[in-house]
Structure formats: C-alpha cells, structure tokens
Write a structure and sequence with these properties.
This protein is α+β, with helices and mostly antiparallel strands and 207 residues long. The protein has helices at residues 2-46, 66-86, 92-103, 108-119, 122-128, and strands at 48-53, 57-62, 132-143, 149-160, 164-178, 189-206.
Length: 207
C-alpha cells in the first residue's frame, strides 16, 4: 500500500513536471511571437512618413529604401549635366547660366573642358552664328558593382543653323561619387574625371 502511494506520488510529480515544461514552452512561444510581431510592426511604421499639405491636412506616404533609388538618381544626375552643359542657345547670359548650373554637378575636369572651348572661341561662334545646340541622351551605361561608379553616356547633338542641321555623335565617360545633397545638387552625386570620348559629325541636313 505504501509502495503504491509512493508510485502515485511519483507519477503525479512527472505529470506536473510535464505540464510545467509544456506551460513554459507555451509561454516562451507566446513571448517570442509577441516580440517578433512588435518588431515587424515597428519596422512597418518606420516605412511610413507623414506629410503636411499646406500646413492643414496630414497625409500618409510610404518611404523607400534609399539604395533602391540611387541608380535612378545617378542616371538622372548624368543626364541633367549633359542637358545643361551641351544644350546651348545664341545668348551669352543663357550659356553662362546653364554652364554654371552644370558645373555644380561635376568636378574641375568639366570646367577645364569648358575653359578649353572658351579659349578656342567655341561659344563666341555659337553667339555670332546664331546657332542653337541641343542634346538627346540615347543611353547610359552605368556600372554600380564597383565604387566609384563608372558611367558612359551615348548621346546625339543637334547643331541647328539657318542653312543646315548637323547631327553629331557624342560619347562621354566619367566616375560618379557620393556627395552632399543641396539645392544645386539634389541627387547628391559628383561626376569625376569627365572626358569627351567622341564628338564627331554623323550627317548634315540641309534646310
């Protein structure tokens, strides 16, 4: 009888211990799930920004990872530089304004190229000849696997005169480095080692 009682006590103890282990595991699982859910919720909240519309209404917007937009910003940065630097009109003030805005996006290598063209009288001939010059970007080859990023730009120049239109092939290359964002450089890039690889006539169209 005594042996049976001891056996029942031992059996009960095992059951209580099993229930205790199950209970502890269950509590641990609940706590772990709660922590994981809290982390996911906090992460989702960090992806949201609130924007004041005219100081009146509060709008919800989703923020994106900065790295996702860098290739797009890099291509737009290079494209914008070429549009400012190579699109010219026969107006001295307009030329100087465009060139100055373009030089905010690049290092002194482009300034050296600009000074060389100035000394050769390139801009004076555009003004005196009433020439309009536009540029169209065909494609950009960007290598984002190594830093600084290497970029090759393929474009076409249209040199528009009263008598004809000259179409030129323009190929440039440069390196892109990260820099500080500003009103003059909204994408936060600087072009280094800018050089013109090719700039030659393709065809001349009589007007």
């Amino acid at each position: 009888m005594e042996f049976k009682s001891l056996k029942n006590i031992e059996s009960s103890f095992r059951q209580i211990r099993s229930f205790g282990i199950v209970f502890v595991c269950l509590c641990t699982g609940i706590v772990g799930y709660a922590l994981w859910s809290s982390y996911k919720f906090a992460e989702a909240q960090r992806q949201k920004i609130y924007v004041l519309d005219g100081g009146k209404s509060l709008m919800l917007a989703l923020s994106q990872d900065l790295s996702q937009n860098r290739p797009v910003e890099a291509r737009d940065h290079v494209k914008r530089f070429h549009e400012l630097f190579f699109t010219l009109s026969p107006d001295k003030d307009a030329i100087e304004s465009s060139i100055q805005r373009a030089l905010f996006l690049v290092d002194k290598s482009a300034f050296s190229y600009y000074k060389d063209l100035t000394e050769k009288g390139y801009y004076n001939r555009i003004i005196s000849g009433n020439v309009n010059q536009t540029v169209t970007i065909d494609s950009l080859a960007c290598d984002f696997n190594s830093y600084p990023y290497r970029v090759v730009t393929y474009a076409r120049q249209m040199i528009i005169r009263e008598s004809n239109i000259t179409v030129r092939s323009l190929i440039t290359r440069c390196h892109l480095i990260n820099s500080v964002r500003s009103d003059n450089n909204p994408h936060g890039f600087t072009m280094e080692k800018f050089e013109v690889v090719e700039n030659k006539d393709i065809k001349v169209i009589d007007r």
